Amino acid sequence: MRLLNVDGVHLDIVKVESFRPPYPPYLILSHTWSQDPDEEVSFHDVHDGELHYFEKKAWRKKVRGFCKVAKNVGYSYVWIDTCCIDEASSAEVGEAINLMYAWYQSAVACFVHLEDISRDRGGMVVFENSERFKSKPPRWFTRGWTLQELVAPKKLYFFDQHWHRLGSRSQLAGAVRTFTGIPLDVLHGKDPHEYPLDVRWSWSRGRETTKPEDQAYSLIGLLGINMSLVYGIPAKGALELLENAVRERYSRDSFGSGSLHSTMADRLRQIDSQRLAKSQAKHIGYGDRGDDDDEENDVDDDDDDGDENDYDDDDEGLSILVSVLGIGDPRRRR
């Protein structure tokens, strides 16, 4: 497992280090990728010391802010998928996907970055009036990979696009349940693996992935299995591979009251309807608009270097976060 060391003198110079268990305490990031993947800060960017990543949008909006918040609450190590996994190695990607759930579960806490929410622009209304926004929640709640990232961590905290703290998973559980359909006891920390397989699988309803195969592979950890990954096949083929792996791993009694096959069939119908809706939207001129085009909610590209405005470093907010993470006050440690 690789982690970023953010304990250097300059936050703009992060260092990649490799570890075997037991891992040092670390915080883990959950986020949605940019519409343009080249804007993400990659493993090779930070590993090879290619300083051009300072100019990437994801560095300015997301990575630097996460590293700063982690350092402020007293942690030296963080994990970010784009920076810590070598996407050029298919073997490494496959291994990482099979271990991903465990990595989120082992973190001290998960920090969620909601790129389309701004607390200063009324972003909390989305959570305070969740029924009103149920049909169009923040993008993070609609993505396939973020399902396991929501339920696996011991502790989870939501932040807006400027890294202002919005609340914990428990504090916002009512709204999160409205957006996701996940039971409240899971959002308050119950192990999701105590639920039957078909129920866990059903939580993926309504979620989308960029690669069709990831409709299946994003569920590996939640279903408690390991399997080889095959890309370049339709979503149906990947889901069938997943179903076979589940049947090899579990007895029939573990499937729950519903049929696992019928749950999968329902998921396939949903994927087909999603594709049809996207096709129709493009035909009438709307297209599949990404969040980067949402000027109302997006942060100004030029407003990314002012530490006083970008990050929620107020004494009250920092003290609360330090307290719930169970560490000493980092301001007395530096």
Automatic annotation (TrEMBL):
Region Disordered, residue ranges: 279-318
Top-rank lineage group of the source organism: Eukaryota
Origin organism lineage: Eukaryota, Fungi, Dikarya, Ascomycota, Pezizomycotina
Acidic residues bias spans: 290-317
Domain Heterokaryon incompatibility: 26-124
Protein name as catalogued: Heterokaryon incompatibility domain-containing protein
